[in-house]
Amino acid sequence: xxxxxxxxxxxxxxxxxxxxxxxxxxxxxxxxxxxxxxxxxxxxxxxxxxxxxxxxxxxxxxxxxxxxxxxxxxxxxxxxxxxxxxxxxxxxxxxxxxxxxxxxxxxxxxxxxxxxxxxxxxxxxxxxxxxxxxxxxxxxxxxxxxxxxxxxxxxxxxxxxxxxxxxxxxxxxxxxxxxxxxxxxxxxxxxxxxxxxxxxxxxxxxxxxxxxxxxx
Amino acid sequence: xxxxxxxxxxxxxxxxxxxxxxxxxxxxxxxxxxxxxxxxxxxxxxxxxxxxxxxxxxxxxxxxxxxxxxxxxxxxxxxxxxxxxxxxxxxxxxxxxxxxxxxxxxxxxxxxxxxxxxxxxxxxxxxxxxxxxxxxxxxxxxxxxxxxxxxxxxxxxxxxxxxxxxxxxxxxxxxxxxxxxxxxxxxxxxxxxxxxxxxxxxxxxxxxxxxxxxxxxxxxxxxxxxxxxxxxxxxxxxxxxxxxxxxxxxxxxxxxxxxxxxxxxxxxxxxxxxxxxxxxxxxxxxxxxxxxxxxxxxxxxxxxxxxxxxxxxxxxxxxxxxxxxxxxxxxxxxxxxxxxxxxxxxxxxxxxxxxxxxxxxxxxxxxxxxxxxxxxxxxxxxxxxxxxxxxxxxxxxxxxxxxxxxxxxxxxxxxxxxxxxxxxxxxxxxxxxxxxxxxxxxxxxxxxxxxxxxxxxxx
Lengths: 216, 459
Hints:
CATH topology of the largest domain in chain B: Four Helix Bundle (Hemerythrin (Met), subunit A)
Radius of gyration of chain B: 61 Å
CATH topology of the largest domain in chain A: Rossmann fold
CATH superfamily of the largest domain in chain A: Response regulator
Oligomer: heterodimer
Largest sheet of chain B: 5 strands, mixed
Order of helices and strands of chain B: HHHHHHHEHEEHEEH
Strand content of chain A: 5-15%
Largest interface: A-B, 30 and 35 residues
Number of helices of chain B: 10
Strand content of chain B: 5-15%
């Protein structure tokens, strides 16, 4: 029985062929379609009904960022794992803002990609270890260099728990259930966290969590 | 047109020579004329004075002679008719001294005479000698004889001779007067001739001056035209150079973009495919093929290293963020890269930046900031570098500030700063560098966006 239907979007046939193999080796996973650019990926949605899209960022016609944004706008239940050559945080943040939950480098191992697909299927975020390591290092250097107080220290233990769960992609209701709190309390915690950390959106929150090594 | 430029050099030199010679000889001519004029005036004046002096002297002598004659006449009469012999003897002495005086005056007159007018002098001398010789016998006469024949002697002998002498003197005076008039006339002729020459000389000088003045004006005008042409050419060449430079900068950037893309999208992707395929082969192998798996692993590591190299190279050529994510993302990436490499705190402050600038603006700002940050990190050893972007309605301001060792922007103006300036000027912007040795530096650039929004609105 097929549990995970995957759509591959990459303009390089060799890459698609290369990643198709390990993905299909997973039990109950199936690559149901392939697209060579963002537009093709959009058009294939109604035909193949994917659960996960593995999306290259740099593609002709419609690039991966824009395709992700458009797909998630009409199909919020689909999860997107971005496949990228770039480890820089600007790309990571942009991908997160577009709605992708997984961010995998093209030169990372196939287990990395499999872990990313598994994570997003479980409604969690995933970043290639090389990416999260870089984010953590850059952030630490920035804090050290600027002699700034680590804002993470401002958070209470409960807020740290909420931060981690929220960054993993849990809804307020799920967080409330997991921590035995009311949804209202969780909402208040989230608001406080955003304020203390000077964050303005969920993608920024996720990026922060990765930078602090809370998730990765 | 361009190859014609060096040709006028030869005529310019010969013309300059002509002008030097012309004006030189003109000045010489003027000096000569002035000298000649003053000499001539001197001569005329001297001649005039000499003539008059001589005239007055001769006149004096002749006047004296005349009065001597009259007095001698009286003396003779007194001598002849004085009844007292003693008084007659006094008259005789008187007469003899009169004789001496007239002789003296004659010799005075003769000494002032020139050789060519000897006849009047000789005439005067013979008349005078005759006059005194006529008187001479009277001194032998007895008083009675003197009284009896005196009147007759006076009338017949003395008076005509005295008259003849006076006539001669008057004649000489008349001749002298004539001669003086002739001298004056001659002087007048000389003076007229001199005035004529002076007029001619002046005319010549004025004419030559006008000719050389005209030539100089022409030459000055021609020089002005030439220099105007040169100026135009220089301005044109500068414009061409600027356009060429802008084109070169754009071409280099385009080439870098292409290369970066090619490396990233082709070489990088293919290497990624190699890595993935090697992984697939590896996981498809039976665990027993230990050596083979290890070889594949090392091949895979090699490919991964190559990917990292290719990525670095591509980013170095032109960061893909600049085209994919915009200026601010690219600047932040560069800042992080520099921080990572050097440990220096490089920060980007870009609040409220719309980041929808066209490619050439993004590229210009990115390249200038990149150069500035690299310069700072390489030469100034700062603790921090701040990159600040400020966007206003019609302009964007970017500054790169550091707390490094600073420098003198007027002295240490390297090719890098010139390149930055060129880039900024190509977009009509301004680049400013404020720094002093020992007190950090601020580089700021201002790019006007007014034209840009206008173009975008119309398109």
